[in-house]
Structures are given as structure tokens and as C-alpha cells.
Design a protein that fits this description.
The structure is a homodimer of 694-residue chains. Chain A is built from 24 helices and 28 strands. Chain A has 694 residues and is α/β, with parallel strands linked by helices. The first copy, chain A, has 5 domains: 128 residues, Rossmann fold, CATH 3.40.50; 139 residues, Succinyl-CoA synthetase domains (Rossmann fold); 151 residues, Rossmann fold (3-Layer(aba) Sandwich), CATH 3.40.50; 78 residues, 2-Layer Sandwich (Dna Ligase, domain 1), CATH 3.30.1490.20; 114 residues, D-amino Acid Aminotransferase, Chain A, domain 1, CATH 3.30.470.20. In chain A, strand 5, helix 3 and strand 6 form a beta-alpha-beta unit. The longest helix of chain A is centred in the middle third of the chain and has 21 residues.
């Protein structure tokens, strides 16, 4: 990526003298941003534009170039890429659209280009994107207008959509947020998000990253990269459902993600998932500030009302407003006109007209190790106060910087002070104090990101050989027969209710007698996944007569529902004692690989929607956290008068399941539901199991 | 209020020649806003400022005035108010602070002023506020700077905090949102929010209202006013918890609200509760648009990425993106370069460079009755496109207005177009499409506000006489003894499990025999509210021996926990069949009066937090909606294989409870928990009851 972002010379391909020529926009941006390298123009017809000659072909350039930026009709791109290969131009940016996002013909063009990249060992950004920007050297390759012009700073933007990226750059400029590097991924034919992310995480110029994606190349790798860095990553991935799937496919040929998995992955990776550009713009305002390491916020406010709003935001975002230290109380009481100010937190300085009180109080807060962050809501109420107010805010910014104390500022009443802070002091300012609290919470999220690495896998908790044997003996494809699914579950060390298979009514009765009444009969057949729905589960059978009758019932059900020739069998299972029901599950996500699921089980699963999940594998601490995320988990931890469930056994079951998903890639899905849980031994008992392999 | 907002002349009291004089700010604003009435200045020392003479007293003014705006130290205010009374100045605005928000001395000053208001029949806005503004006549009484200056429009602002109000006015101006009237309530000594709200709801100049409150005078009345009007009300009330309580008390002497009650009240009143100023600014951008009556949104986007983001927002906010009509598909296919555009919704026009396609498609959408709202994401990619793009957007705005179709616009890439729309077309523009979708959802909320009036009370469902008798016979104060609480419950028509009181072990055994085993024994004593915690409930007693032993156990418990001399008794209750447990409750909210609560019951109540509530009274439809808001309600409606509970009986119980709370103001709290529910008859059985009167 270095050679892309720090190219010494650029050839812009697709330029003409026509005033509507889009590639002129690239040239215009390079000139306007003061690109420090050499610029060469290439077009079909020789000519001049921006005072630069247009060469008829890449081969005609007077010297070799580092990078070619191509904006020509899609069908012409393969030949141009081939030319780059021949001429040793190893970095290519293609901004043209008309590739895989438009279907078969475009996909074929991409295949052609891909082959050329391999042949000539080239790297390509795009197609169907807006190229890249490096503010450090004025390299600005987008063909579209950039108004207002980006400022240089420490935030880098990686966007699959050029339009979204450009729009964000404009807003960053307006909000006083400085840009370091920008890259528009487009169709990700060659360069993908993980490669660029890896580069930006190591890039000294980049302090925080915004990542807009419509699809994920390899979510697991993205997680690994994020876990290996302390830089804040804001991920904006809106393509997570049927609403967005079609438009995202036609826009950047991307597949949608599962939102619950995406959220879990972000939490595990210490990535902040934003749901809008606005959320990022708020969070980015603290990119130049030290991280917020704790919960203790002190608020200084010129407006009592804004102080109340700030306190509400603290409630929303989980900040404490600790009582002020006695020294600070004394300071405020000395300096305030008697009785006007109460030394609460938020500190309402609404009736203080001497702004040096602000700077003195803020300075004391900066020195206080018990304060994790400071929020100031400042503003002069009239012209006469302005100079004093500005002097105070300058002093506060300097003091906080020196003390390395996180500082967020919002203004009150007049917006002139917003402009002053942003434009004259280069200090991004929050429009409202609630936004400042939100940004402080984001910073705290990054400061507290989990130290656990996903791939620090603990030693397996189960006998892998036994589980492997069960799987290998299984017929390929789709769902395992119930006996085998139960055997797999047992091999993972998860106790199942005792059961026996029975081929005849008499065998069923014998099995029931040996298991002890009451029993449950279950019909098992390969195609019969939802056996409860068709009446394939008979509960609470109490005696030989009920069991033989039940067997007959299931036999006739089998004749009705199981295709002729397909095997079926009847399982006799000891009926478990009453207890709460949970589900333990696992599946494979297209982007993030294996995930493990915990939640409320039984017939209410769908209605309660009380489930949580993690990217696998997990360790026991993570499993306990997963359990505690659900309501059923809180109930199982023990409520008034009721003993807690065996959470340790539950946690181990989840860890095992997560490890098995990593160990056995052929297992697509595990669904143990219901699993009944008990305070004593056994802590849990799986009553049913669905395991899909393939 | 009319006389406040349309005063023909104003005396500004507290003016001096001193450049730091705050009251000069009022004069400055009146002049700057072009006040159409007469301005008189009053101060302790005669002089001149802004070319106007300063009179030494209100009595010295050359003619009577409609309104006095006072900004002098608090102790001087009562004498000034008295002067107003004597001079017949019936409208007074006090901007000075130093009253009840600062404690006892200030409260005494307010009492003095209050007496004068009664004596002279004056009306007063404030104190401790920023007065009021009426853009229609240039009446601008705040003493603080207003930068940028408000524009005239159709939104009115009613704010308890002057600072919050001023800050919002500045942002409205920056966002292109026009102000009609503003009033800062301050301490609400005389004029409160309901009176002003009532006025603004009837005010022809006001189309939408933002209401910032830190405490509520009379929430029930506010609800009644809101339900009687079709105007959108955005309520910002952040003082809802311990975090905000202290600062709000010292700021405007306000008491905090219960957040769950506030949320329920807003839903019932069709009031949109906003949690930040930003949410209001987003919603207000559609104040000049027709209401969004349905769910069907069509999105036209210049950027594919912004289209994906828009579709995600539709997922968040519950909008459908219906398929385009065949006519529209045909139109797009004809006009688009072949193959470049797929006629999906969102429509990605990213590669259309002819902006007349936008206006044609938008015009077709405006004519389509199947489209409830249109969202356009527009923007030229370069200078050459600008004129065409602007022409198109002007045409679209005009067409939508004519067709009365709600239209939201966001821009892409360059922010110049935001400025153009806002400044040249006076059309508020959304910064990001997600904000536009949010605003459309707000508009839909208002369009769908419930037609039910809270006070359209249905006929009582219970025998009021019987319930009244139970209550009247009860000793005053605190919790009713359990037998009486159960009798009250039964009088409301809510079946309780059969029970008998027993004074001796033998009587208990006899009661148990007559009720049928198993039984439950409960210890009842006035001070013993949480009897389960101390072991005062014995479950599942199966026989005489167990009952007599249980009686002995509860007797010794009573000796331990019940103070000597206080009565206690033992209740024998038939043990109910197993079933799901719910809670039915009611209490009185300080702002909104009686509320009724439904939720998951039993020992898990606190952990599950699965409750919902309504302001009482409610009818059966509302009760069913209340039940359906909880998870337990969904479970009771019937899940896979299980029969539904008797929701009709549940609904009736809630209606009854809500009616009883209205009928019997002495009932402070009712807590029926657990109530066991069954599919058959009786649909529900209250097993315990706590009723607090006072």
C-alpha cells in the first residue's frame, strides 16, 4: 500500500479537452491539493488541459510512473491494465464503473483484469471507486469535487462506496476534523479492506480509522487485525438485512451480513460499530485526545439547562458524576459570588461572569487523578464577555493537553464560539453536550477494549477423538439422525437425557422399563427436522400400555411423513425433571466463521428473542459473559429465594461447543434445544439435538 | 398569552449606561429584530443608551406600556412588580435569577411576588428565564446575544431553560429552520408550560412545538392538551433520574420525572419524546411538509452507498421500500443508459448524468398514491453538472409541494448544495439520509397519533360500592392488611385464590380441609410488606400435620418480626395449579397521576424487567396493546403447541384496576403479584395483593 499512498508520479488516464470530461476532475484535485509528485495526462486524443499536455498513450510518457489512475469506459480497462503491466506501472487505480456490480458481462471484464494482475504482478484499487487520497503529499485521485476541501489531520477513511467517502470528507472538513488518508475500495477486485486496514493500523500518520463496508472479505481476519491494534476503528456496515441486500448487490456486488453476528464480532474485536455517518463524526472529535480510561466525568457548564441535559446523557452512557473534591468545593465557593453557585457536578457556572473561574476550576480538575475526563459547556452571553471567555478556553485547552486529560467542549447560545474553536484553535467542538458525552463513551469503549484475543484458544475441553468418530461414521450431508446428534453432543461432554432406540413396541416398552417412567418417545428420521410440529414427540408416558400405544402412533406418523425407503426409528428417552430450559447453539457465519449461541430455550425461544452470541472459540470467562448478557442468564444466576443454576457447567458446555466448531469445519450448525438446567448435578441435560454437517 | 406575545409597547427595566449592563442586551435585541412596538428604558440612573433615554422609574414613562421586561437584582423585583400593578402594566417578564432555585431566601421573594400578582391580577413570565420572542412583530426580550439571528418561520419553542432555548434558536437558524415564537419559562412562578402550550397549539403562526422541561406542572393536563391538537409536539425532558435531579433542582427548582411513565405518557399523548436537541432539529426539518401517513417510502439516490445507508435506516425505522410500479420501471429503463440502472428501490441513479431523469422520476412518484413519502439524495459531482442539478431539485420541490407529497432531501459529496437548498430555496436539508428517514418516521408518528382520548373513560367494569366499602372499613394509612387487600382485589372482579383467615392451629387445619390440600400459609401483619423474604409464606402444605406445624412456625416468626401489640394473622390459601405468573399493578405518578402496570410476575419480576405501563384510565383495546408490549404478553398469546391464556380476562382486570385508581384517589399503589394465568376458567388467579392507601 505504501507505493499507492506515496506514489512519486501519477498518470491520469482518460483525460480529454472536453469540458464534461470526468478525468479532468482528477487532474483538478491533484493540482488543488498541491500534489508533490509529477502528473502526466493520457487520453485518446492529444491536446492540453490545465496547461498540461495530453499524451496519446501510457507508452508515450517521457518517464516511468509509479501509479496509473484510470477513468475510461469499462471495456477499455483490461487493455490499459495490460499496458501498465508491460510498462512496469505496478500500482493501478480504476475509477470506472461497469464491472461486476452490473452483472455477468462486467464480471467477465473483472476476470480478465484479475488474470492480468496475476500475470504482471500488479496491484489494483477499484474498480467502481474513487481512488485514494494522501493529504501528506497532496495525492488526491477522486474525480469528483471536494467541497469543502479536506484539512490535513490524523483520521483515515476507508470506504467501499466512493460517494459515502466523499460526503464524509466534506463533513469532516466542516466539523474541523483532519484527514490523513482516504481510500475508496469499490468492487475490491484486488485490494481489499483487510490489506488497507492493516496498512493504516501501522501508518504513523493515522490515529483513527473509519471503515465503510457493504460486504466483508474476511471478517475473521478483520477481527484479528483490530484486536492487534490500539487504534480506534469505527465500522459502518449497513448491509445487514433484506432491506439493503438488493441495493448493495447492485452497488458493490456485496453480500449482506448477519447483524447480530456483526455486533458480537465488533464487541469482541474492540471495533465500534456506528450506524450512521453522524455517529462517526461525533466520535472522531476526540481522535486527538487521550483515551477516556474510566467513568468519572466532571462537567463545567455555563448553562444550567445544558448541565441537566449533560447529566441525562451521563445516565444514558453510563458515566458517573462524582462529588467534587473538598479543595475544589472551596475554590468554587471562594471565587463564586456568595450563594450563586452550588458545588455540584455538573458545576453550573451560569451566573459566573468572571471566566477566570472556569480556567482555575478546569486546571484543578486537570490535576485531579480521580477525574477521568472533563466536559466544558462554554460561551459568552454577550460581546463584552467574549475576550475573557476566549482567553479562558485557550488556557483550558492548553492545560488539559499538558496534563493529558481528555477534554470535550460544547458551546452555549452563540455559535460564533463554535467557529472560533474550530477555525482559530483547530479544536473540534460538539454541537450539544449530549454528543460530547457520547464521544467520551466511545473513547472509553476503545480504552477498555478486551485484552483477550479471539485466537488465544484455550486447551480443548472435550475428547476430540470420540466426537470425530461419531462424525466420521455419519452419512454425509444435512442433519445427523437424532441418535447420532445426541452421541455427538455427549462426546462434547454435554450430558443428554438417557435414551435408547427401539425398533418394536416391545423393545420400546423394555427400554422404558429400564430407563424408568415417565418417558418420552421421539420419532427420528433424516428429513424430519421439526418433529414437535408434526406430533413426533410424545411426552410423559407412564407405563407399558402408553409406550406401546405411543410406538404405534409414531409408526403411523412415520408412514405419513417419512418417504418410503428412508429409515426412521423411535427413541425412548427418560423424561427429565421440570426445570428451566435454555438453548445452546452454534453456526457458521459467512463473514466471521463459527459462532456460538446461548439463550432462553424451549417452545418460547422465538417469542422471547432472548439470545446472545460470540464468535468462536471462546474461553470460560467469555462464556460467562455471554450467559450474563441474556435475561435467562440473569434468572439462572439466582433470583429471590431460588438457588442458582450450575453456571460453570453451562459455561463449559459453551466453550466446548465453540471449540468443536473450530475443530470440525464440517459441522455447519448445532442446535441443542431444549437443554434443561438444574441447580444440582447434572447441571444440564440436553433433551434434543440437531446437528447439521456438510 | 396574546398580550405577552403581541405587546404594543415594552418597558425594559434595569438599563444603565455601563457597557457591562446586561439589560442593554434586551434593548439591542429589540432594535436588531425590528420590534414594531414602542421601546422605553428604565434604570436607576437617568441617561441615554442606543440613542434612547433611560427613565428613572416606570412611573416616569410618558405613556402606559403593555409589558415590562425586568432584569434587576432579585431583591428589587417585588417593588418593581408592585409598581407594574399600580400602573396597570399587566404583563411582566422577569429575567433576573436568584429566586427559588437558590433556596429559602429566594423562595420567600417568589412568595412576595406571587401575592402581588394576585393582588393586582398580573401575569408574569419567569423569573430566572430569558423572556420571550415573537418573530412576527420583532419582539425579542432575551438579554443574551442571538448568533446566528433567528429566521422567521412556523416553529415555536417553549423552554424552561433560557440557555437551552437560546442555543437551540442558534441551531435552528443555522439549519434553516424558522422560528415563530419563543418563551423561556424559568421558575414558572406564574405562567407555566400548559398555559403557553395551550396558546401555541391554537396559535395560527405555530405549526410545530419544541418543549424543553425540567419538571412538569401537571402532566395530565399536558397530555389532555396534546391529545386535543394535531400539531407536532417534541418534548425534551431530561430530568428523569438521580443523575439529573440535583442539578435540575438547583437550576429551575424542578422535581424529576419517572422515565417509564414519561415514555408511556408521550406514546399515549402522541407527543414525541426527544432525548437531545439534535433529535428535534432533525424532526423539525419536516415541519413545513405534509404528514407521512404510511410506510411506503421511495428513495432516489445519486450515490449507491448512500442508498444502502438509507435502506438500513428504513430497516431501523420500519419503512417499507415497495417495488416500483411497472410504469416507473419503464420510465427509468427508457431514460437510463442501457444496463446502468436497475429499477430497484432505493433507485440508484449514481450513473445518470442527466438530471432531468431525477425530476421526471420524482414527478411520477408524486402522482403515485401508493407512495407515502419521497427521499432524494442529490448532488452534482462537478461544476459542469451544477446548473442542471439545481434546476432539477427546484422542479422536484415544486412538484412535491403541489402534489402534497412529503419530500425529504439530503445531498451527497459537496456541501455547497446543502447551502444552496437552505439559503436560496429556504428548504431545510438533511445532512445524511439516515437523518431524513428518522424525520420521516417522526412525521409518521405524529400522523398516526392515537385517536383515543385518555379521558374518554368507558363505563366502570366493577361494583364500585363493594370496593368503596372495603376501603372505607380499612384503617387509614399505609398498606392494607392482606385479607382486606384480597377483598379489595375481589371487589374489582379479579378472582383471588380461595382463602380463609385462621386464629389457631386447629382453625388453620379446618380451613385447609375445607379449601382442599395442598394449601399455602401466609403471615399477615401491617408492617410486614415483604413476607416472602422473612419466610412468612409456606408453600405446598399437604395435610393437617404440615398445616399445624406451619401455623406454629408463622406464630414464632410473628413474635420475631411483628412489634408487640400490633395485630397479625395467618391466612390459609388454596394452592393454585402451576401456571405462568404475571403482575398487575397500579401507582400514582407525581406528574401524570394514576398509572397501571402489566408484566412478568413472580420472583423473577425484578430480573426480567419485562413490564409496560399506561396512564390510567385505559379501555380494553389499550389494555390488550399494553399486554402485547411485553414478552410475557407475547408468550401468553400462545406459542408453539401451547394454548393461549385468557387475554380477555387479563385485559378486563387491567381496565378495572385503571378505573379503580381514578375512582379511589386514596389508593396509592396496588401490586398483585404473582397473578397466575390459565388457558381455561378462571383465566387468572391473584395469589397475593399489596394495596397502599393514604
Amino acid at each position: 500500500m505504501e507505493k499507492f499512498f506515496y506514489a512519486h508520479s501519477v498518470a491520469v488516464v482518460g483525460v480529454s479537452e472536453d469540458p464534461d470530461n470526468l478525468a479532468q476532475g482528477i487532474v483538478n484535485n491533484l493540482l488543488e491539493f498541491g500534489y508533490q509528485g509529477k502528473i502526466f495526462l493520457v487520453g485518446r486524443r492529444p491536446g492540453t488541459t490545465f496547461g498540461l499536455p495530453i499524451f496519446a498513450g501510457l507508452a508515450d510518457l517521457p518517464e516511468p510512473v509509479d501509479l496509473a489512475a484510470i477513468l475510461t469506459p469499462a471495456p477499455s480497462v483490461p487493455a490499459l491494465v495490460e499496458q501498465c503491466g508491460r510498462l512496469g506501472i505496478s500500482r493501478v487505480v480504476v475509477e470506472s464503473g461497469g464491472f461486476s456490480e452490473l452483472g455477468e458481462a462486467g464480471r467477465a471484464l473483472e476476470d480478465k483484469v484479475r488474470a492480468l494482475l496475476t500475470k504482471y504482478r500488479l496491484r489494483l484499487v477499484g474498480p467502481n471507486g474513487l481512488g485514494l487520497v494522501n493529504m501528506e503529499i497532496g495525492l488526491a485521485l477522486p474525480f469528483s469535487h471536494m467541497r469543502p476541501k479536506p484539512r490535513r489531520g490524523n483520521i483515515s477513511i476507508l470506504a467501499q462506496s466512493g460517494g459515502v467517502g466523499m460526503h464524509l470528507l466534506a463533513w469532516m472538513a466542516r466539523e474541523g476534523l483532519g484527514l490523513n488518508k482516504f481510500l475508496s475500495l469499490g468492487n475490491k477486485l484486488n485490494v481489499g479492506e483487510n490489506e488497507v486496514l492493516d496498512y493504516l493500523l501501522k501508518d504513523p500518520g493515522t490515529a483513527a480509522i473509519y471503515l465503510y463496508l457493504e460486504g466483508m472479505q474476511d471478517g475473521r481476519e478483520l477481527l484479528r487485525l483490530a484486536q492487534g491494534s490500539a487504534k480506534p476503528i469505527f465500522l459502518h456496515q449497513p448491509n445487514v438485512g433484506p432491506e439493503t441486500a438488493a441495493i448493495a448487490r447492485s452497488h458493490t456486488a456485496s453480500l449482506s451480513s448477519d447483524e447480530t453476528v456483526l455486533d458480537a464480532a465488533c464487541r469482541q474485536g474492540g471495533i465500534l460499530r456506528v450506524r450512521s455517518q453522524g455517529e462517526f463524526l461525533v466520535g472522531a472529535k476526540l481522535a486527538a485526545q487521550p483515551p477516556v480510561k474510566g467513568n468519572r466525568l466532571v462537567v463545567l457548564s455555563r448553562s444550567g439547562g445544558e448541565a441537566v441535559i449533560t447529566a441525562y446523557a451521563c445516565r444514558q452512557w453510563g458515566f458517573e458524576l462524582p462529588a467534587l473534591s473538598p479543595r475544589l468545593v472551596q475554590l468554587i465557593e471562594q471565587r463564586a459570588r456568595s450563594g450563586v453557585i452550588r458545588p455540584t457536578n455538573p458545576i453550573d457556572l451560569g451566573d459566573i461572569f468572571d471566566f477566570s473561574v472556569y480556567s482555575e476550576v478546569a486546571a484543578a480538575l486537570c490535576r485531579d487523578p480521580e477525574v477521568d475526563a472533563i466536559l466544558i459547556n462554554y460561551g459568552p452571553l454577550g460581546e463584552s464577555e467574549r475576550d475573557g471567555a476566549r482567553e479562558a478556553i485557550r488556557a483550558i485547552i492548553a492545560t488539559a493537553k499538558e496534563a493529558e486529560k481528555p477534554l470535550a467542549i460544547s458551546v452555549v447560545c452563540t455559535l460564533d464560539e463554535e467557529d472560533y474553536l474550530r477555525e482559530s484553535l483547530n479544536f473540534p467542538v460538539f454541537h450539544f453536550p449530549g454528543e460530547a458525552v457520547r464521544a467520551l463513551a466511545y473513547s472509553r469503549f476503545f480504552a477498555r477494549r478486551p485484552s483477550l484475543r479471539l485466537f488465544d484458544t484455550p486447551a480443548p475441553l472435550f475428547q476430540a477423538k470420540e466426537a470425530a468418530a461419531v462424525l466420521s461414521a455419519a452419512p454425509g450431508g444435512d442433519f445427523l439422525p437424532l441418535p447420532r446428534a445426541l452421541a455427538f453432543t455427549a462426546a462434547l461432554g454435554i450430558t443428554t437425557a438417557p435414551w435408547q432406540a427401539a425398533a418394536t413396541p416391545a423393545a420400546a416398552a423394555a427400554a422404558a422399563a429400564s430407563l424408568g417412567y415417565p418417558v418420552v418417545l421421539k420419532l427420528s428420521a433424516p428429513g424430519l427436522v421439526h418433529k414437535t410440529e408434526v406430533g413426533g414427540v410424545l411426552l410423559n408416558l407412564k407405563g407399558t400400555k402408553a409406550v406401546t400405544a405411543g410406538f404405534a402412533e409414531l409408526s403411523s406418523l412415520a408412514r405419513e411423513h417419512v418417504p418410503p425407503g428412508e429409515p426412521w426409528e423411535v427413541l425412548v428417552m427418560a423424561q427429565a425433571a421440570a426445570g428451566r430450559e435454555i438453548l445452546l447453539g452454534a453456526r457458521r457465519d459467512q463473514a466471521f466463521g463459527p459462532v456460538v449461541v446461548f439463550g432462553a430455550g424451549g417452545v418460547e425461544t422465538e417469542v422471547l428473542e432472548d439470545v446472545a452470541l460470540r464468535i468462536a472459540p471462546i474461553n470460560e470467562a467469555e462464556a460467562r459473559a455471554l450467559i450474563a448478557e441474556t435475561k435467562i442468564g440473569l434468572v439462572l444466576a439466582g433470583v429471590r429465594g431460588l438457588p442458582p443454576a450450575d453456571l460453570k457447567a453451562l459455561g463449559r458446555a459453551l466453550v466446548t461447543l465453540s471449540q468443536a466448531m473450530v475443530q470440525f469445519p464440517q459441522v455447519q450448525e448445532v442446535d441443542l434445544n431444549p437443554v434443561r438446567v438444574f441447580p444440582g448435578s447434572p447441571g444440564l441435560l440436553a433433551l434434543d439435538a440437531r446437528v447439521r454437517v456438510g
